[in-house]
Every structure is written in C-alpha cells, then in structure tokens.
Design goal:
The chain is an alpha+beta fold. The chain has one domain: OB fold (Dihydrolipoamide Acetyltransferase, E2P) (Beta Barrel), CATH 2.40.50.90. It has seven helices and nine strands. The strands form three sheets. It has a four-stranded antiparallel sheet, with no helix packed on it. Strands 6-7-8 form a three-stranded antiparallel sheet. A two-stranded antiparallel ribbon has the order 4-9. A hairpin with a 5-residue loop joins strand 1 and strand 2. Helix 4 runs parallel beside helix 5. The protein is globular, with a radius of gyration of 15 Å.
Length: 147
Amino acid sequence: MAGLSAVLSNETQKFNVNDFSFYCKPYGVIALEELYGTSQSGSTCRESINKLYTKKPFLKDYSAKHLKIKQRYHLEFRDKKCILYAKGEISLSELLLKNGLALMRPHFKDKEFYYLFKKAELEAKLNKLGMWNENIDTKCITAIYKD
C-alpha cells in the first residue's frame, strides 16, 4: 500500500511510503502522453492527440478525477511499471484502456492481464472512445513500435 501524493498526468503518479517517494507509470500500456512524448514535433500523431484533448479536455485529467490524493492504493510492480488498483480489482491500466487513453504495449504477453487488457482495449475501440475516435493508433504507429 502506498499513499498517492500527486497525479502528474494519466501516465504518471507520485506515491509515498513513509519518507520514500516514487513515481508510477501504468503497466502493460502506452498512454497517450507517452505517444505524444515519443512522436516528432509537428507530426500527425501529436496533432491528433492535441485535437482529442481540445475536443474533450476532461480526458487529459482522467486519472486526476478518478484517483484521490492522500488515499492509499494497492500497488504491484512489474517491469519497472506499476499495477495500480484504482477501482477495487480494476487497475489504472485497464481503466485507461477502457476509455481509449492508452493501448496495449506491442508484444505484451502477461497471462494474468492480457485478456483483461485486450477486452478493455477492444471495448474502447468498438465504442470509438478516446484515441479510437481520432484513429490515433494509425497516426502514431511509428511511436508505438519505437521500442
């Protein structure tokens, strides 16, 4: 358990355990902020993400609205990322996927989360939520497969 001290973005949260602070990024997914940061300035990828956040500014603060500062959250660590249980047994990664604010990492193979994440991503895709409404996945393909 760790206490949430700040929500910097949908992609990054700051936690405290006693006097130790650390940052968390969601496990198994690429958040829109990461796509934006790894794409080139002036690219169609960045333009589409800006367009999405201009149309629906509340999506930019999705994590801040759903996570409570000073609340303690159950966290697990995998591959230098966090599984943050934001809503009972539902992880922040899954919530971001369900709302089209992230996509599964290419070659993600964790058996425990693969089908939950795939289902959440497909649900957002079928309902054209978030990034799926702007076809950001195709516009950001270079940034997605950069690693």
